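Hello again, I could really use a second opinion on something today. I've been staring at a protein lately and its backbone has me curious. Please have a think about how the structure follows from the sequence. I owe you a coffee for this, so here goes:
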Amino acid sequence: MSIPGIWERDLHDWRCGAAILGPMSSGDLPHVTVLDSGWTLSHLGGAPAPFPIEEIDARVPGCVHTDLLEAGLIADPFHGTNEHLTDWIGLSDVRYRCRFATPAGTPPRTPSEPFEPTSESSEAYETAGPSERVTLRFEGVDTVADIVLNGTLLGRVADMHRSYDFDVTDLLRPGLPQDAGGSPAETGAPDCNVLDVVIHAPVTAAREAARRIGDRPQTGNAHPFNAIRKMACNFGWDWGPDLATSGLFRPVQLIRWRTARLRDPLSVVAAVAPGAGGQVGTVRVQPFVDLDPAATLATADLTVDVCLTDPQGRTLATARHRLTGADDVTLQAPDPRLWWPVGEGDQPLYRVDVSLISPDGRVLDRRSRRVGFRSVELITRPDEHGTSFTVRVNGRDLFLRGANWIPDDVFVSRIGHQNYRRGIADALDAHMNVLRIWGGGLFADEWMLERCDEVGLMIWQDFPFACAAYAEEPELSRQVEAEAVENVIRMSVHPSLILWNGSNETIEGYVHWGWQDHLAPDQSWGLDYYTRLLPEIVAHWDGTRPYTPTSPFNPVDLMDPRNPDHGSVHSWQVWNQLDQTHYRDSVPRFCAEFGFQGPAERATLAEYLDDDPLTASSPGMVLHEKAADGLRKLEDGYAPHLPRPVDFEDWHFTTSLNQARAIECGISWFRSWWPRCAGSIIWQLNDCWPVSSWAAVDSRGRRKLLWYALRDLYDDHFLTIQPRTTDGLGGVPTVVASNLAGSAWEQTLSVQRCDLGGRVLDSLTTPVVVGPRDNLTIALPQSLITPADPSRELIVAQLGDRRALWWFVRDIDLALEPADLDIIPGEAMITVTAHNLVKDLCLLCGPGDPVLTSGRRRLTLLPGQTAVLHLDSARPGDSTRPAGPRLRSVNDLLEAARRRR
């Protein structure tokens, strides 16, 4: 397939955000200098600033908010009710200026180093030598900006989702003599370079773009975020603040090179397929180069050397190829070791080295990539239940257990390796095997993908379209095409990436949210992107993994996105309208989004809120609740199950517990129907600021009660009791044992009907064998499921170390007595013995309490049972312990409600 249309014209503009250069062995290799110092920030106009901003120190990567925070000029927008004190920033034009001497290159990064460049050289050269060029590279500009070097406009950029390169060879001023001393800014040298990035007010730019191309409906915030290519949630969301940023959020580099260099991104795609003697791994490399303008490919006579090595460093295949402009180099690995998702096998990574060679044998440039050999399919086939939505890796069908991922900080320049490492650990520790990178944020960071390759965490990547109609006019479509090509090329090398998804809730919005009433009959709304442009780009530059046009996605009828029998669904009736038990109203083939809110951890609220008294409706709490009518929905969520809280501490515990239990209700139902239902991806894993939200882990990295529930729900071995009848919906308590491990689960099943005092009223014991990656449904005799007094009885099922409980009535109707506990605190543990049934006993961390637990935070104790809760310090080396652990239970909530009456 040739590169069509605009791809052929503008290929040199498509860059990746994290090319990794190989080790330098020749002076001909490119030299990279990172412009991470000498920057200043000035306010140019638009909304008036409340104080002078003229050439204040700035940090790149960074943004206006973080620079003003570091300068002590604004209060933390996350704190209290400060959020809207900085609204003027989104309406302001600003200038980032960097004064720098024309530098020699710094040594490039080695392939094993994560992408986090720093400047290492302050040497200077007078002028570029023969055949030498200098490229100015912007990894990420936020968002609409004019870039000027030494008074010459290089261009206007308008897309946060791509990078930009400019040839500045003829614009750089001669450097300082080596013995001049000091920086150009310090010496006042007239021959230093001045780089200006004038960033236009993002809110204003979005409004102006909407007027030019036509306003279109959107849901998510009050701004026309769909009119410019900036991450949608930066303008606010139902979990995020309205803090529209401006800045250079990724590195700026000067790249000095001679004769030719490899362009970024380098297209490397690995695949595996059956061969004559077994499976054959194939690596396809498509190299593109920048040339000295005086040369052409025909006269330059350049070649590329490509080498494939196995995980032990042994050479498997090599190739030398003369560049012609239509280049495709293919290497094969016979019978390669397969890359598997976490829990399914190992993650062997092979290495591909690409070298650009001059006619006289000099190495002009190098790249290195790691690849994994695996096949991935999305099985959407008709069956007796509808149409499946099952991910198949290396021929094995998987139940996907995961979460949606949003940007980890409102100020994305602050998202570093530690954020990704922590987030990936949060997912893996909760037994997840997939993260969905949601379409209202950014494409996945390179370091995140590298780490996921290593640990086997699968990535589902949305293209950045979310909850809005998008114009297809050239002003926007050219940006969309360029950003898609760049990122598909950049990301396709990663085996952890298993699915491209064109958009989030765009078809859903068009069909069900009234958009058609606000669109002219011939007005575009983005459908061509999802059904033609993006799949064409994926097919051309990748071709090894599936693509879906949207989520939710009905493969039978695109315009029927809520049909649970066909493809994937988003389940939001629960939370918005219905009680959690309504998850059981249908059996989705795959649930890609669903969730229930709860507050940030109590210790996190204490760090950011000063309300006195702190209540569910105090000003700080209200500002940190972005969901429409969120407080009422929280109350509606717990009211059918738990009593009304008597104070804020009870409210916090009640809503946190109810969040965990609502998601338990959903996931246990979905998982009990595997393989008919093939996955659940909750909304959401993480937060971007301290807020009441659907997250399992709050913005300070504190794991909420929901996270601990997920760890049990997503374990390989899971036991649940679900209502079943012959048609599957409603019905009587039935045991379901779910085994997602690769070996059989053989245990003795014990089921008892007990009263709240622990007396066994009826029982069943039977050996059970659950096959690998299979479910087993076990019907119970009528005597076990028929209580004499529903308010005083329950069913207890035990299979190995897995336990499931069934309550015949809601908590508010249970005859629970006040908790009677013996509590023995220890150095790093708490031993608890229950003298009566204690439901949902939880370890809570209060204000100023640094203690967390990697063990259990929530359990139900039957009379006479003892449990040990282990405590871990929240910070390495912190030996502080709480004055007294805070243990709360449903018993306590019921007793408090009784006392109030």
Remarks:
- The radius of gyration is 29 Å.
